[in-house]
Amino acid sequence: MKVAVNYSTEAEQLIKDSLIDVDVFKCPDFSRELIQRAERTKPCYVHFGLNAGSGQIENVDWTLIKELKNWTQTPYVNVHAVAYSKHYPEFDVLTDEPSHINLVVDAVIRDIEIVADKIGIENVIMENVICRGKGDNMMKSVIDPIVLSEIVRRTGCAFLLDTAHAQMTSICLGLNVKEYISQLPVSSLKELHITGIQKDENGRLRDSMPMTKDDWELASWVLRKIENAEFSKPWVVAMEYGGVGPAFEWRSEENVLAEQVPEFYKMVKLNQH
């Protein structure tokens, strides 16, 4: 398993100064220049901002996606399985109505099939998102392990587990996070994202934050499951802290990266033996 961290200028400098190390940078898909800069320090792979189930997949620039995938040798094009409440106004966010669940499944599968037609289903990976429950913009059905497993089974795509998304979903919906993760399609796991979660000034949980004790413990548990072959082994484990642009620059603290990336790297590498 390779170890990645979100590309940031702070991480780049720490690597140049030999204070941290990773195998690859995880880069967003919106800037060729950023990828070119990052690759002068470490190899990169691209995380794409595609949402399966939104009905927008047909409008994607596939020439650019294929170019970035081939250029960086990114093995998978990721999609986020989504079901926005605005697209299902007749249903409650928490509905378990079978007819609604079928609509969500069909919408996600329809978009994944478009992606598969462009790049091959063996190159498609689906990520779990966050549902916060009542008042949220994401329908609960799309984070249901049964639904996600059915989508993987029917399409043949692989699975990307985001532990922070699973944590936040579980806290908001009153689930046991380890039981929840264990029910996801982890036998098809090909990529793993790990980061900290913390409350903002309004008490709302957010991810891409420094790791806390609970975050480290959950990450360690997932890696043990991989080591014991209870979950499939992903090609990369990414620490999703730091980044570029207004949404991430304020949470790209050099001291956090300097302290937590080496611990993260060691934890992942130790779980491969």
What are the SSEs and their pairings?
Elements: E1 2-6, H1 9-16, E2 24-28, H2 32-39, E3 44-47, E4 50-52, H3 62-72, E5 77-81, H4 98-119, E6 124-127, H5 145-155, E7 158-162, H6 163-173, H7 177-183, E8 189-194, E9 196-199, E10 205-209, H8 213-227, E11 236-239, H9 254-270
Parallel strand pairs: 1-2, 1-11, 2-3, 4-5, 5-6, 6-7, 7-8, 8-11
Antiparallel strand pairs: 9-10
Helix pairs in contact: 4-5
Q: What proportion of the residues form beta strands (DSSP E)?
A: 15-25%
Subunit arrangement of the protein = single chain
Q: Per CATH, what is the topology?
A: TIM Barrel
Figure out the total of helices.
9
Shape: globular
Give the CATH class: Alpha Beta
> Helical proportion?
40-55%
Number of strands: 11
Distance between the termini: 11 Å
